[in-house]
Sequence to fold (234 residues):
Amino acid sequence: MIRGRGQQRPPAADATADAGPAGPGRGAPRPRARRAAAALAAAVALAAAAGCGIRTTAVPVDAGPAPSRVPCTLAGKETTAPAPQQMPVRVYLVCASALKAVERTVTVSEGRTGDRVRTAGILLGELLEQPSATEREAGFASLVRGALTVSAPRDGDPAGTLRLSRRPEDLAAAALAQVVCTLAESPAAAESGTVVLAGPGDDAPRGYRCTDSVRQRPDTALPTTALPAPAPAS
Fold:
């Protein structure tokens, strides 16, 4: 096209017109640019979370084992008054990895209820018996197994000593906890409430106590305590 003198070339179109807003009066950003910016921001946030050690999974954290469904109770069991030659006793059985007391009734010979060794023998016999059907349904079990008898203390043994036919240390921890906690709540215990046990050999007697931690964790070693004064020689 022929231009006359004095005519000027029209200004070229601004190459940056479509590049996004650079100041007031420019056009709005395109949708594609907005999507790219959002994706970039999400990637930066994800990388920051990973760098800080934050878990991005939505899976809930395990809060430990589910509560036991074993009832560990004999609620609803019918109880009757003991006969003249019967005596109510409490024995400790294992249920849900802990010790729980169970009420039972035993037959005793007349005039023998105050005999410490006799009482201990009766209680050990109860622990050696298999739990009843009702107790098993409630989740109770006894870990005291094998032959286990009790005899009177020897000369020089501390007061209240009970001599077992097996070394207490040879019993499983939970079984020994059953024995100690059962005897501790009976006349078989020493006056201080300590259960003084020894085996058939020459090992010195040791004192054991039934504590809350023992009842809650019977599979751990039982704590020992200071022994009462030795019994006078007969």
